[in-house]
Amino acid sequence: MKAVQYREIGGRPEVVTIPVPVIGAGEVLLKVTAAGVCHSDEFVMSLPAEAYTLPLPLTLGHEGAGIVAAIGEGVTAVKVGDPVAVYGPWGCGHCIRCAQGKENYCLNAATEGIRPPGLGAPGAMAEYMVVNNERHLVPLGDLDPALNVALTDAGLTPYHAIKTSLPKLGAGSTAVVIGTGGLGHVAIQILRAISGATVVALDINDEKLELARKVGAHHALLSNADAVAAVRELTGGRGADAVFDFVGMQATVDLGAQMAASEADMQIVGIGGGALKVGFGHVPYDMAVRAPYWGSRSELIEVLELARTGALHVEVQTFSIDDAPKAYELLHEGKISGRAVILPNG
């Protein structure tokens, strides 16, 4: 079968031919219908040798959807032919957080060597993939996999962040979304669907801001020093009640903190390497700063339910598996609007 792999430190993704994987007891084989391309992949492939800890070669793709092709002994929750989405942040399944469905915060994953597909385990960017446990599959139903596979990360991650800030996002509140790309443009829609907040989107050019307006932002501003005063003016001087930074560079982290109100939430979701100094006098009074990671299984089910209602729509550009390296080039150049999706089986 064909697969897209990262094969050597400093290299670019390659399309290779490898054997179709064989499943064991408790495992599920998927014929992959769609796999998302993510900046997290770019981050992993940019790591120098001394910082890279994942196996090589690595089959990419931590956003996956497919049709169940075969089931191992003991699997009862799915059957051959079922369309499913893959819940990516795999955990041990038996610690207290996994018992709550919060495998993204599993207490044992690191010590037991459990890694997400595409970020350690073989991922979805292949014609077939192995899912290690049936609990990591969520029914997709009649949702189009190409249009919705990105929700397994680009939907789940912002949903998890926004949900933790919902108590601060009632009527009359303001939420700022920094970065309106793959995750950010979905975050805007989630905020419109489940909160009472006025949504202010920030990005670096008019094209990206037009996407933000298209998906529901009340206001769209260029992400520069003038944005702080603009947000303050929009909020009567108070500032934003929650800031969601989907870039995470030092410049955006600093910008977000400057426009936050007292008692605000600052959620640094992007992995751009920025950090915020927290302490009395450094941030607004009683501001909470979080660095969330992915989301729970139950939250993924909720995200897909939102998609079923029509409340969420992911802007996607689709590519064949042979064109996957080109998709990564376009992502690196900032030329993907929304999310790039690979269709491994056509």
Give the SSE layout.
Layout: E1 2-6, E2 14-17, E3 28-37, H1 39-45, E4 58-59, E5 63-71, E6 83-86, H2 96-99, H3 109-112, E7 128-131, E8 137-139, H4 145-148, H5 156-165, E9 174-178, H6 184-194, E10 198-203, H7 206-214, E11 219-222, H8 226-234, E12 240-245, H9 250-258, E13 260-268, E14 288-290, H10 297-309, E15 316-320, H11 324-332, E16 339-343
Parallel strand pairs: 9-10, 9-12, 10-11, 12-13, 13-14, 15-16
Antiparallel strand pairs: 1-2, 1-4, 3-5, 3-7, 3-16, 5-6, 6-8
Describe this structure in words.
The model has no long low-confidence stretch (mean pLDDT 96). This protein is of the alpha/beta class and 346 residues long. It is 26% helix and 24% strand. The chain is globular. It has two domains: 2-153 and 295-343, Medium-chain alcohol dehydrogenases, catalytic domain (Quinone Oxidoreductase, Chain A, domain 1, Alpha-Beta Complex); 156-290, 3-Layer(aba) Sandwich (Rossmann fold), CATH 3.40.50.720.
Q: What's the oligomerization state? A: single chain
Q: What is the straight-line distance between the termini? A: 13 Å
Low-confidence stretches: none
Alpha-carbon Rg, integer:
20 Å
- Give the structural class: alpha/beta
SSE run: EEEHEEEHHEEHHEHEHEHEHEEHEHE
Report the helical percentage: 25-40%
CATH superfamily of the largest domain: Medium-chain alcohol dehydrogenases, catalytic domain
Summarize the main sheet: 7 strands, mixed
